[in-house]
Write a structure and sequence with these properties.
This protein is an alpha+beta fold. It has one domain (11-116): Beta-lactamase Inhibitory Protein, Chain:B, domain 1 (2-Layer Sandwich). It has four helices and five strands. Strands 1-5-4-3-2 form a five-stranded mixed beta sheet. It starts with 10 loop residues before the first strand and ends with a strand.
Length: 117
């Protein structure tokens, strides 16, 4: 539990995420809309975002206030995913890495995953 009494979101991410060391900036994140670039700043801020700014149970509105509109949305049964592109950071740097946030219908943000698509 954090000093604010909130539970940090549990997440799954490739090794490169822990090496991303830029501090999270909501304004920079929102400006980085060209998600198929290797130098997209979102990827460099992902560790800070996941460890300091996302909390279990956050609402869709709270997330959108921090990150802006998602690049993609999808639904599976009662779960809903919001995805933001991070640029080309892992592997051969030919596929876009995404932050995927999963919400359930009753308790808000449940999990975060960083993976390629």
């Amino acid at each position: 539990m954090s000093e604010h009494g909130r539970i940090p979101i549990g997440y799954s991410a490739p090794e490169w995420v822990s090496a991303s060391n830029a501090p999270f900036s909501s304004s920079i994140w929102k400006r980085e809309v060209d998600i198929d670039r290797r130098d997209n700043a979102r990827g460099g801020m992902i560790h800070s975002l996941l460890s300091e700014y996302l909390w279990e149970g956050m609402s869709d509105a709270e997330i959108r206030e921090v990150l802006g509109p998602p690049d993609l949305e999808r639904k599976e049964g009662r779960s809903r995913w919001l995805l933001w592109g991070l640029g080309l950071h892992s592997g051969f740097k030919i596929d876009i890495d995404y932050l995927e946030l999963r919400f359930d219908s009753t308790s808000g943000l449940r999990t975060a995953v960083v993976q390629q698509h």
